[in-house]
């Protein structure tokens, strides 16, 4: 397998210089051969990254309604509603069939192709829990991810900081794309001195780190009177968690979050499952991270690659959309409830994700044995 690793050269602030140095190595994924470097104009990259897609800020009430609807445990008020809900679910599952039921069709398409696996973390590998600091994965899930990574290039793509998600996953064999893809690192390699060498591939929002730190402090102060509100620093972005906040206070919390942004026009708000997120207004998301990783693996124009992205949240839709537009690979939405999505298949929860990944590894091992 030929891989082309495209690497922003070091950890220096990339926005402080006129050029950005990127290294390219046509080397196997885990090779220790040194990359070659080239430099291109900083302005050009920034023009690509600067957001020109600022959407109108939604109303607080629409965020709150949407967050409420994203709760699968929400009770329906009447039997009429549950009949409608069942109808919805039946027609939805026809449109987005279970990836487990469609497994044979999926591996048929994968024959002779290199699967590249992209996995969201929260709600996909770990269950959604009240305390985001305790979103642990099971031992079984860790083992299966390790197996997946041994058989396919594998990346975890998450809104969390890399440090946080790595502390949960505890695996060195995979790519991590943290902060919604704004922080991408290659698998850890041990150098000849026995030291771990973490490969920073790309950090397009480095200049925003101090701003994010400042906004985290302001928001912690502004929200401390709201019981259960939690602000999480994800390094290049931040999350305000609503999960432990009384629903009656959601609008007030959203209002506080929105008010802070008035002073920070270079930051924007996005919404996830019971979370509001503040991110730099650069045009970079999980979909762009997927494209970047495919390119850095040498699969930009390959016909023989099958990217598979599994995720549960709105931010994962950017990646599903990229796959649809490429006409290559497919997205799998993790959801128990019908949702509009750009994915092709569905799985209900992390335990089904575990089963799907396990079957994929077994299929791969079997197909290698048959070659
Ligand atoms: Mg998620």
From TrEMBL:
Q: Does the keyword Hydrolase apply?
A: yes
Pathway-wise, it operates in:
Glycan biosynthesis; trehalose biosynthesis
Q: Which reaction does it catalyse?
A: alpha,alpha-trehalose 6-phosphate + H2O = alpha,alpha-trehalose + phosphate
Keyword annotations for this protein, in alphabetical order, are:
Hydrolase, Stress response
Q: What class of enzyme is it?
A: hydrolase
Q: Does the keyword Hydrolase apply?
A: yes
Task: Give one GO biological process term.
Answer: trehalose biosynthetic process
Q: Which InterPro entries match?
A: HAD-like_sf (IPR036412), HAD-SF_hydro_IIB (IPR006379), HAD_sf (IPR023214), OTSB-like (IPR044651), Trehalose_PPase (IPR003337)
Compositionally biased spans, kind Polar residues: 65-76
A Pfam family assignment: Trehalose_PPase
Q: What would you give as a GO molecular function for this chain, any one?
A: trehalose-phosphatase activity
> Which NCBIfam families does the protein's record reference?
HAD-SF-IIB (TIGR01484), T6PP (TIGR00685)
Name assigned to this protein: Trehalose 6-phosphate phosphatase
